[in-house]
Design goal:
heterodimer; A: alpha/beta; D-Maltodextrin-Binding Protein, domain 2; 6-stranded mixed β-sheet; 5-stranded mixed β-sheet; 11 strands; B: mainly alpha; two-stranded antiparallel sheet
Chain lengths: 325, 499
């Protein structure tokens, strides 16, 4: 009797299963709205740095506009290229987005073999801009850029300056071309090492990201001689730009998001809209303010153009310095 | 200052969520640190996203707890498995594991624990009293001074080399070479990468460590098991005394612990050097100054104390350049800068004025993390030793898997796993031919520091080598180097084993 019941139960259960399968599943799959599953954001630097913190904040803010979670993973290495290559290697379906910073796209490809050029991307937006300043120690005898150039003119083997990678040294490269003096580039491994080199008096000057320099400017241990970005800086409005001082030199660097160029246009548009909204989200703006990185919206297409221009310009600069691969 | 610190303590102890954050940080640190492949850096990276939603004191002390716990945790697996859980514990293996094989695992862990806590507390005191002047002095170390310091550091290979100095030098040179793989740190040109993008970022210290010291050790132990030498991984204690550490034993090592703590403080205050180098130098100095140097490497409690006190002293000392100058001393401190920034604080000379309560809370948290570490490990060490006494057929596969997971989790890179395997085989072969993988490890740690500073110094001086003799600090380190080489040659001559 008991066995009978079990058999009956099994039979009914199987029928229900059949019915459910027939009526729902097996018709042709409908085109689902994008996105219908989590999006992965690959950050091309390690956890905890300025790029990582701001990218995570942007991803968090974008979730509410995309309607799906945005999972952030870090893939550092290869001077910022490894994360970008990882993104390009994923299926171009719009579900993998990469943090694409300026230097690994515009400059590094001239120095090492990478499987991409700026044309391999479609950009979503640029959300942050690095401003650079030319700094000396506050008890340094150099009060102006002119003082620094005069000192370099007297030192034939070159006046040492510190910077933590390109595009920063291009400033001195151009200064020395214009004024026919010598500067020696002493590369450091990070912005804070640059600070140490200046504070310890081991180099005469440095070009570094303003957000790294500001604490020491505020405490009176460093002096900014010039802004080397295209405009004066909000955080140090009294400091003149190199352009105002008569040198046609400006470097800028950007943080942005990009995808593989084969991502369908409609999906790209959805991503662009969502991240543009996320950019204006107060929580994201708050994080940018705290990290001292100027929030600055540039549309995907414009950012792409900036990268292409920068790529061509870097080729010339590096060739002049004899540093191309 | 005192009042502020007291407030800091009250704040941490009587805010349940803050205390919980600290406890969580310490426990997570110990456990991740103890598993080979998962490191203190990873514990911190895991904690960082959580800290975005906490107040500054909470988040920072959680990070400090994970840092301190993780740095200690690495020594647990170094002692119990012979495979260091973190790079900082690499110097602990030599004596810690030998003690464990004698059944004295409990004793060794307790020694490591007391030494770690003592070292960290020592550096806390230095941090609180003289952070500012120490950091100012550390600034005098420029590329030239670092270069000479690296020359001296190379001589510690002498004591890690075992019997033959020549073999030690070969190991060290191999390490120096492996350290040069990747983008040239001065000219950004790829070296030894064979066109591989994955190699362009160089070989990761953790991957190298897990391969050459942890996984290769597992290979060696598996081999001896296969030959039927041992069944259970570790023998049980032969007498109850083996699980205990008497106060007398602690006191007899107090000189070693203090010396190592001071070394750890010095290394921690100099940005860029890190706990691994500190523990090797601490171990080296202890061996040279010991009354029974022949016991080192055969299960000397003194060796465990020396290495562990030095590496945990770096935890507190690391905050000296971080707080006073805004310069992070190692990767973990760099992650902490990010955590400060999320809270709208910028570490640096202004933080003592802008957020004194945060600094006080951080000090209190660091001190309390030691006490919590002491309590947590004293309660739980039996559990860890019990696990280590399981059969080898259970332990080795589990450790093997953890090594693979840990290395993969580091950069999500399959190539890293191959590199780990390469170093595991290399480490195994080295041991078989009586070379010490530790010498390779030391060379590898020193390589980037040595090269970058040497080349920076020459750039600054316009290729004039006199820069390496230009300041009193350089002379001091030249003198120590000469003395160190002299001492090695003398001791080896005595034992007639120079080649």
């Amino acid at each position: 009797m008991r066995k009978m019941k079990l058999r009956l139960f099994l039979a009914v259960a199987l029928c229900v299963c059949l019915l459910v399968t027939v009526t729902t599943g097996c018709s042709e799959k409908k085109e689902a709205a994008f996105p219908d599953k989590p999006i992965t954001l690959i950050v091309n630097y390690g956890g905890g740095g300025g790029t990582d913190i701001t990218a995570r904040a942007l991803a968090k803010a974008a979730e509410q506009y995309l309607g799906v979670p945005v999972t952030v993973i870090n893939k550092s290495g290869g001077a910022g290229t490894a994360g970008i290559i990882e993104m390009l290697n994923k299926k171009p379906d719009g579900y993998t987005v990469g943090v694409v910073t300026y230097a690994p796209v515009a400059i590094v490809p001239h120095q090492m073999e990478v499987p991409y050029t700026p044309d391999d991307f479609k950009f979503i937006l640029s959300y942050g801009i690095y401003r650079y300043g030319l700094a000396v120690k506050s008890d340094s005898p150099y009060k102006t850029v002119e003082d620094l150039i005069n000192a370099a003119a007297k030192r034939e083997e070159g006046l040492p300056f510190a910077a933590s990678g390109y595009p920063q040294p291009f400033v001195y490269q151009k200064l020395s071309e214009i004024e026919d003096v010598n500067f020696t580039y002493v590369p450091t491994q990070s912005g804070s090492e640059t600070n140490t080199a200046v504070l310890g008096g081991h180099v005469e000057s440095a070009v570094a990201v303003m957000s790294d320099l500001m604490p020491f400017v505020k405490s009176g241990e460093m002096r900014i001689l010039a802004s080397v970005s295209s405009e004066r800086m909000e955080i140090a409005p009294d400091v003149p730009t190199l352009k105002e001082l008569g040198y046609d030199i400006a470097i800028n660097s950007y943080m942005g998001l990009g995808v593989h160029k084969d991502v369908p246009a409609d999906r790209l548009q959805i991503l662009r809209d969502a991240f543009a909204k996320a950019f204006n989200d107060p929580t994201f703006q708050d994080v940018m303010k705290k990290t001292n990185i100027p929030a600055n919206y540039i549309s995907g297409d414009e950012f792409g153009q900036i990268c292409v221009d920068g790529y061509n310009e870097a080729a010339e600069n590096l060739k002049a310095m004899g540093l191309t691969k | 200052m005192f009042e502020l610190l007291l407030n800091g303590f009250i704040n941490v102890l009587f805010t349940p969520s803050t205390l919980l954050a600290l406890i969580g940080g310490v426990i997570l640190g110990v456990i991740l640190g103890a598993i080979p492949g998962l490191t203190a850096t990873m514990a911190i990276a895991l904690v960082v996203p959580l800290t975005y939603y906490m107040d500054p004191v909470q988040s920072l002390i959680m990070l400090m707890g994970a840092y301190n716990g993780g740095t200690f945790g690495g020594s647990m697996s170094a002692i119990l498995l012979g495979a260091p859980g973190t790079p900082a514990a690499a110097a602990t293996v030599a004596d810690g594991f030998k003690l464990a094989l004698q059944g004295k695992a409990g004793k060794a862990i307790k020694m490591a624990l007391r030494a770690s806590v003592s070292g960290c507390l020592f550096s806390c005191i230095v941090l609180m009293m003289v952070a500012e002047p120490v950091a100012r002095y550390a600034l005098k170390f420029g590329p030239a001074e670092y270069t000479v310091l690296m020359v001296f550091s190379l001589t510690i290979i002498g004591s890690a080399a075992g019997k033959s100095i020549t073999k030690g030098m070969i190991g060290g040179a191999l390490g120096l070479l492996f350290g040069m793989v990747g983008l040239d740190r001065i000219a950004s040109v790829p070296r030894f990468t064979f066109g591989s993008i994955d190699l362009a970022s160089g070989i990761d210290l953790i991957v190298m460590l897990i391969g050459s010291l942890a996984l290769s050790e597992i290979f060696i132990q598996v081999e001896s098991v296969a030959r039927g030498k041992i069944d259970a991984h570790l023998p049980p204690p032969s007498c109850p005394d083996d699980d205990k550490l008497s106060f007398k034993e602690y006191l007899s090592n107090i000189k070693t612990i203090t010396r190592s703590a001071a070394i750890g403080c010095g290394i921690g205050a100099l940005p860029g050097l890190g706990p691994t180098l500190a523990s090797y130098i601490g171990y080296d100095m202890a061996k040279r100054n010991s009354r029974n140097p022949e016991l080192f490497g055969k299960g000397a409690l003194e060796g465990v104390a020396a290495a562990e006190s030095a590496n945990n002293a770096v935890c507190g000392a690391n905050l000296i350049p971080l707080l006073a100058l805004g310069v992070p001393g190692d990767t973990m401190a760099a992650i902490m800068i990010g955590a400060f920034m999320v809270q709208g604080l910028t570490p640096g000379p202004l933080i003592f004025r802008e957020a004194p309560h945060v600094v006080a809370g951080l000090y209190a948290g660091l001190i309390l993390s030691n006490i919590l570490l002491l309590i947590f490990v004293s309660v739980s060490f039996r559990m860890f030793t019990k696990v280590a006494r399981l059969e080898t057929t259970i332990i080795f596969p589990v450790v093997f898997i953890f090594c693979i997971i840990g290395v993969y989790a580091l950069n999500q890179s399959i190539t890293d796993m191959w590199i780990m395997l390469f170093f595991a085989v290399l480490g195994y072969v080295m041991v078989k031919f009586d070379y010490s993988p530790a010498t390779m490890m030391i060379g590898f740690i020193l390589s980037p520091l040595f090269e970058v500073n040497l080349r920076q110094a020459l750039l600054i001086s316009g290729n004039n080598p006199l820069i390496f003799f230009s300041t009193p600090i350089t002379w001091l380190f030249w003198a120590i180097t000469v003395y160190s080489i002299f001492a090695i040659v003398k001791s080896k001559k005595r034992s007639n084993q120079l080649i």
